[in-house]
Amino acid sequence: MLQSFYKDLVELPGVSGHEKYVRQYVREFLKPVAEEIVQDKLGSIFGGINLSSQGPTVMIAGHMDEVGAMVVGINDKGMLKMIPMGGINAPVMISQHLDVILEDGSKVPGVVGAKPPHLLRDNHTKQVSDFDDFLLDIGADTLEEAKQMGIKIGQQIVFRNDYTILKDGKKIVSKAWDDRFGTAMALDIITSVSATKLPCRLYCGANVQEEVGLRGAKTSSYLIKPDLFIAVDCSPCADTFEDSDVGGKLGGGFMIRFYDPKAIMHRGMLQFVEETAKEHNIKFQYYKSLGGTDAAEVQLSRDGVLVCTIGMPSRYIHSTTSMIHLEDYVAVKNVILAMLHQLDFNKINEIKSNV
Ligand SMILES: [Zn+2]
Fold first, then answer.
1. Ligand 1 centre from 116 Cα, in Å?
2. How far is the CA of 217 from the centre of ligand 1 (A)?
3. With contact defined as beta carbons under 8 Å apart, do 73 and 81 qualify?
4. Whole-number Cα distances in Å, 211 to 48, 270, 300
5. What pLDDT does residue 289 have?
């Protein structure tokens, strides 16, 4: 079973630029564990332990934001116009239940209207399939009524679904695994090692605004100045789709992201991660991505940083829901712990020289 903070975190609202509630949760969680808590001006937050060590600084992060939408307008009928936050294929929005999050954190529920087939028969009207055409129906009859419900331009909109453990007991479905999983894993790691002796200084936490262009990682890496950075992020599995050459199987172990368009994995890091996994009998799979993670941004900070992404296999991410597997959770956690315990300056220099 996953600890309860995984469920707590996926259920919180937090599209890009609206990570407040997630950050508050992370801060409260870190308070009793961390020697210090640091936050940059964009809102990324980290807890540090073992800070008196003379060893290298290691940074582990998920990202707090999830894909969703933002209110950009209210029409005369009280319907809301939206723009996507992060990469979402528009058709997944049709007929979905969504929540608008008000300033006080309360929710205004709504549905994205779909045209019934009865209204599409004449071939002149088409099903809406573009973000610009979607309307979120919150049950307000006028613009004024929508405002009275507390709706304002700029508010975040999140997907509404229930955290569900499937019948096999190993697969869990929820919104926002990408990347509350990584956020929760960073907290999981810091609590797991807080009582052990580490060869490095360690900062664990989460970045903001990854889904809109890896923004939070840029500023947080300047704040923490890591010698080595591990991004924990969800990577899509295509194992339920035919004819896909994208790798990744749910339950197949963590993913070594050896290539994406924004980061070619450092040869020394690749060897380090492979050897660590093999030595500890941790299941892994190779993954070539078409996107990027915070690792790409941190890699380019200052005079360059050793980075890797430890990928959590996930089905259906960047839609309204997603699915993960408990065995992959174990693989992700174990490989990060096994890496951490080796990371002194000798190891860092060995990895660096193997470029
Ligand atoms: Zn992500």
1. 34
2. 12
3. yes
4. 25, 25, 18
5. 84
The pTM is what?
0.95
DSSP conformation letters of 107-152: EEEEEE----GGGTTTSSS----SGGG--EE-S-SSHHHHHHTT--
Q: Which residues of 33-66 are buried (b: 16+ CB within 10 A; e: fewer)?
A: ebeebbbbebbbbbbbbbeeeebbbbbbbbbbbb
Please list, in sequence order, all residues whose beta carbon lies within 8 angstroms of the beta carbon of residue 122, skipping any fewer than 6 positions away: none
CA 330 to ligand 1 center in whole angstroms: 19
Given a contact cutoff of 8 angstroms between Cβ atoms, the answer to whether 227 and 256 are in contact is no
- Counting as low any pLDDT under 70, the low residues of the chain are 121-125, 243-247
pLDDT, residue 274, reads: 98
Catalytic residues: 210
pLDDT tens string 130-170: 888 899 999 999 999 999 999 999 999 999 999 999 999 99
Q: According to the model, what pLDDT value does residue 323 have?
A: 97
Domain boundaries, the chain: 4-66+175-353, 71-159
**Fold agreement (4-66+175-353, 71-159):** no
Distance (Å, rounded) from C-alpha 130 to C-alpha 306? 40
Superfamily name with CATH number, domain 71-159: Peptidase M42, domain 2 (2.40.30.40)
**CATH class for the domain made up of 4-66+175-353:** alpha beta
Residue 315: predicted pLDDT: 94
User: Quick one: residue 261, left, alpha or beta (phi over 0 = left, psi -120 to 50 = alpha)?
Assistant: alpha
Q: Cis omega before residue 294 (within 30°)?
A: no
Tell me how far the alpha carbon of residue 317 lies from the centroid of ligand 1, in angstroms. 9
Q: Measured in angstroms, how far is the CA atom of residue 10 from the centroid of ligand 1?
A: 13
The predicted pLDDT at position 101 comes to 98
d(CA 345, CA 293): 25
173-185 as b/e: b if 16+ CB within 10 A: bbbbbbbbbbbbb
Beta partners for residue 174, in sequence order: 322
